[in-house]
């Protein structure tokens, strides 16, 4: 078997150099030399390797490894993957309406969209899917799972899942999934509008505008019914971008335009081969140009979420509340390739109106282990907002008002990160799904404590063994892990003491998890938002205009 480098690849390379003109001449020899080496290597493998080679698989493996050395966002998509990527960007596809993560080599359900296939089939959060159409899912990648979950609307498949250790069979009918960007919107106390934006899909800005208009109309209707002359105005807006990983940049620009109006610079794209910088400017008229605005962010707010929060912060148009955002200041474009394949590549970094780049990890500067470095505080350049407030580059968007979700308490973070809270809530709901109160009792709390303590020893042993394996391999030291039992009782005492000390906060966290499992999203948000510390802090801030304005003034 003889393998030849695809003609389209060679033509693409030639076209690249022709488009670059004199700029690329200096590098032309290096590129040509390495392409020649790659062609020869590819041919030798196909001709002489001991086993038969699948050319497409070999090439994709090489491409993936090459792109991985650049950054995690530059990817090659096969024909099927390209179609999946398009559906993701558009926010509609034939599927089941769920999110999964891989845990213990199997997909576990972490989110279910209301009224879609998995919801209708009574799939629960925490269910572990083991088979689809008889195919065992152990060690399947997320991409492989997507090929099984998705398909034409109204097509069916069977699955087997594990719930509380009991196998259950389900028949699933795929549906046309259209994921809305706004998961919930509603009025809170003092005529404050709340909008939860989950994704920057097509028409995300339109959904926000529609939600705000509807809430203003509701205020006007209420005032008319009460025969009052109070203005039909919102006292403030809370835009919740927590856990929002981004999406379409043009929608982010439009969303900023809703609050600042037209002809305002939101983000500038700068790249090595872009030529002139591309400045993204708002073109839509403001819907609420002066209404006080708070934007909620956390460590999982990324990309387009950071464009919105960073630009509004630079313009002193909003107060950013929560935790420092993810720090993804890289911009990707999709490039069509032959045979309906596609490439997503990083083409630029984005810069907020003050001039700062918020990219946290420096992929072109790696340590001895190959991990990208971060800027330390002394390396971060300071910039100024419109009012002269100091903001910094290179580390995501720092909130104007920091609200620690775990109150700085390590035990609260631990029970979340180690899935202890997630596992407890799954079990509690599965045991009693019809509970009407969903307010954890003292007995529930003690059960939770027991679960946390029961996991302590196994978690620590697992982590210690992994660390020791990396250092010592199969050594005598690893076999002495049983000695850890000496400290387990003391450790459990300390953990129980910390949990008891923070009982009220943990009970609130337990309540949230139960509400998520019991109710669909609109009902969940209505029940939860008046208990959510960050939302309530934003309500208090918007209800006190002098205090709100104080955050936007130069210190």
Any overview of this molecule?
The protein is α+β, with helices and mostly antiparallel strands. The chain folds into four domains: 7-53; 92-178, PDZ domain (Pdz3 Domain), CATH 2.30.42; 182-340 and 347-402, 2-enoyl-CoA Hydratase, Chain A, domain 1; 410-541, no CATH class. The chain is 43% helix and 21% strand. It contains 18 helices and 23 strands. The longest helix is centred in the last third of the chain and has 31 residues, at 442-472.
Search tags:
555 residues, Pdz3 Domain, 2-enoyl-CoA Hydratase, Chain A, domain 1, 5-stranded antiparallel sheet, 18 helices
Topology:
Layout: H1 7-20, H2 22-48, H3 55-68, E1 75-77, H4 79-90, E2 92-95, E3 98-103, E4 106-112, H5 117-120, E5 128-132, E6 135-136, H6 142-149, E7 156-163, E8 166-173, E9 175-178, E10 182-188, E11 192-197, H7 204-226, E12 236-240, H8 249-260, E13 265-270, E14 278-281, E15 293-297, H9 304-314, E16 319-322, E17 330-336, E18 342-351, E19 361-366, E20 372-374, E21 382-384, E22 390-392, E23 401-402, H10 410-417, H11 420-431, H12 442-472, H13 476-479, H14 485-501, H15 503-518, H16 521-528, H17 533-542, H18 545-551
Parallel strand pairs: 11-12, 12-15, 15-16, 16-23
Antiparallel strand pairs: 1-18, 2-9, 3-4, 5-6, 5-7, 7-8, 10-11, 13-14, 13-18, 17-18, 19-20, 21-22
Helix pairs in contact: 1-2, 7-8, 8-9, 11-12, 11-15, 12-14, 15-16
- Count the domains: 4
- Unreliable stretches: none
Q: How much is the radius of gyration in Å?
A: 27 Å
CATH homologous superfamily classification of the largest domain:
2-enoyl-CoA Hydratase, Chain A, domain 1
- Major sheet strand order: 10-11-12-15-16-23
């Amino acid at each position: 078997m003889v393998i030849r480098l695809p003609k389209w690849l060679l033509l693409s390379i030639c076209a690249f150099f022709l488009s670059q003109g004199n700029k690329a001449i200096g590098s032309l020899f290096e590129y040509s030399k390495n392409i020649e080496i790659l062609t020869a290597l590819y041919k030798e493998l196909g001709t002489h390797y001991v086993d038969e080679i699948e050319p497409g698989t070999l090439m994709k493996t090489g491409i993936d490894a090459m792109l991985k050395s650049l950054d995690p966002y530059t990817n090659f998509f096969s024909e099927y993957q390209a179609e999946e990527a398009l559906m993701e960007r558009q926010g509609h596809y034939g599927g089941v309406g769920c999110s999964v993560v891989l845990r213990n080599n199997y997909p576990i359900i972490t989110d279910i969209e209301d009224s879609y296939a998995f919801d209708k089939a009574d799939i629960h959060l925490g269910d572990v899917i083991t088979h689809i159409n008889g195919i065992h899912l152990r060690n399947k990648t997320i991409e492989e799972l997507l090929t099984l979950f998705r398909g034409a609307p109204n097509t069916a498949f069977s699955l087997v899942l594990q719930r509380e250790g009991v196998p259950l069979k389900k028949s699933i009918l795929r549906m046309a999934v259209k994921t809305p960007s706004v998961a919930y919107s509603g009025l809170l106390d003092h005529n404050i509008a709340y909008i939860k934006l989950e994704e920057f899909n097509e028409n995300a800005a339109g959904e926000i505008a529609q939600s705000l208009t509807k809430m203003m109309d509701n205020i006007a209707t209420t005032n008319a019914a009460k025969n009052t002359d109070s203005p039909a105005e919102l006292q403030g807006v809370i835009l919740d971008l927590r856990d929002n990983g981004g999406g379409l940049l043009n929608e982010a620009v439009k969303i900023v335009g809703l609050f600042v109006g037209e002809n305002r610079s939101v983000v500038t794209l700068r790249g090595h081969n872009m030529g002139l910088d591309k400045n993204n400017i708002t073109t839509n008229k403001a819907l609420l140009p002066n209404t006080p605005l708070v934007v909620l962010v956390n460590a999982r707010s990324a990309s387009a979420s950071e464009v919105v929060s960073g630009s509004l912060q630079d313009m002193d148009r909003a107060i950013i509340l929560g935790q420092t955002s993810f720090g993804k200041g890289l911009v990707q474009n999709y490039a069509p390739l032959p045979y309906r394949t596609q490439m997503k590549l990083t083409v630029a970094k984005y810069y907020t109106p003050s001039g700062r780049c918020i990219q946290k990890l420096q992929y072109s500067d790696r340590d001895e282990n190959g991990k990208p470095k971060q800027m330390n505080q002394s390396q971060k350049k300071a910039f100024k907002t419109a009012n002269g407030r100091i903001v910094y580059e290179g580390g995501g968007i720092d909130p104007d008002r920091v609200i620690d979700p775990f109150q700085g308490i390590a035990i609260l973070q631990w029970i979340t990160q180690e899935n202890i809270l997630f596992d407890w809530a799954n079990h509690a709901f599965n045991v009693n799904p019809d509970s009407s109160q969903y307010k954890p009792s003292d007995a529930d709390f003690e059960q939770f404590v027991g679960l946390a303590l029961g996991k302590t020893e196994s978690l620590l042993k697992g982590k210690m063994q992994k660390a020791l394996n990396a250092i010592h391999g199969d050594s005598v030291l690893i076999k002495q892990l049983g000695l850890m039992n000496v400290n387990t009782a003391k450790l459990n005492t300390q953990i129980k003491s910390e949990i008891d000390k923070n009982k009220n906060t943990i009970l609130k966290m337990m309540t949230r998890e139960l509400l998520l499992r019991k109710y669909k999203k609109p009902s969940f948000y209505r029940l939860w938002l008046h208990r959510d510390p960050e939302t309530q802090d934003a309500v208090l801030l918007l209800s006190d205009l002098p205090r709100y304005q104080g955050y936007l003034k130069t210190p």
